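Please, does this match?
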Amino acid sequence: MAAYNTRGFISAALDSVFAQTYADYQVIVVDDASTDGTAEILLSYHDPRLIILRNETRRGAAFSRNRAMDEATGEYLAILDADDFWAPDKLKEQVEFMNNHPTIAGVGSYVYETDETGRRIRAVRFPVYSGQIRCSMFFRCTIVHSSIMLRHSFMIENELRYNESFPGSHDFELWSRAVFMGDFHHIPRYLTYYRSSPGQISEDLTGTQKEHAIKVYHTLLHKMGYEPTQNELDCHLMLVGIDTDLEDEKTRCNSVLDWCDKLYHRNLEKSVFRQYFFANEILLRFLKYCYDNSLGFFRTFRLMISLHWRMKWCFFPYFQIFQRLSINYKDV
C-alpha cells in the first residue's frame, strides 16, 4: 500500500486487511511524506504483521509501490490503494486460486465501486479469462489496481515495476506490459471495494491523466506494428472512449468503423492476439461506441452488420455483454 494524505480512508483500508479470513501475510505501507496525520494513524496499529516505511520527501505512488515490492518477502503480492478496501475472504479466495493454478501470473476480481463514504454505487464486471483480458486491455484498463494479486516470482523474473514517469496512471501502464508476459484471470466475485474519487483515469480523462492514457494506447498500437498517424490515433481514442477534436458525427462514426476493420486485418498479419478473442472484442467495443454516442437502434444495427461483413466474421459475441454489464445502485 502506498499512502499520501489518506487520513480519512486508510483506517478502513487497513481494517479490511486485518479482518481477512486468510491470516498468513505481511502488510507493507509506504507513507509518502504525508502531512495530514496519516503517519500517526499508521503508528496506532500494533499488529506485528504491519511494516511501515516512510519517504522523507514526497516521491509519488509509483516510487512508493516499487519500494514496497522491494521489501516484500511473500510468494504473492496483493495491492491495495489506501482509499479502497476488501471483502473479508478476498485474500483467501485468491491464494487458493493461485495455488491451484500455478501458471497464472495474477488474479483480480469483480469490484464494487463506492462513493467517498464507502456506500456501493455500482457493481463492475470484467472479462474473466486470460485471452479476453489481454485483448480487452488493448481498449481499456480491465484490471482494478486494488483487486489484483500477483505472483512475486513473475514480477521479478520479468523485471516488472511501476514506471515512475507515469505518476497518474502507472497501474494501467504496468498491466499493459504485464498481460503480454503472463496469463491473468478474474475471479467472478465482488471481492474488492473501489472508492471513486475525482481525477481517476476511469472517471476524468482530462489533463495529465488523459495524456498518460494516450501514451499507453500509443505503445499498445506499436505492438500491432503501428506508428500511428494523428488520424489513426484519434480513431483509436474515440473507440476507447476518449474524446478528440473531430466534431462531425458522421465523419467520426465512419472513421471509427474503418479503424475497427483495419485493426482486425492488422492482427491477422501480426498475430498479436488470438484472432477469435480480438474479433469479438472489436465488435463489443464498437457496439459500446455506438451506444455511448447515442446512434440509435437501427443505425447501430446497420453499422454492426457492416462491420461483421467487412471483417467476414460470423461469430456473435453479444452474449458476453451480460457477463460485463455493470449494475448501478444509485437509484436503488
User: Anything to note?
Assistant: The radius of gyration is 21 Å. The beta strands are 2-3, 27-31, 50-54, 76-78, 85-86, 104-114, 120-124, 149-151, 183-195, 327-328. The CA atoms of residues 98 and 104 lie 7 Å apart. Residues 224-316 form one domain.
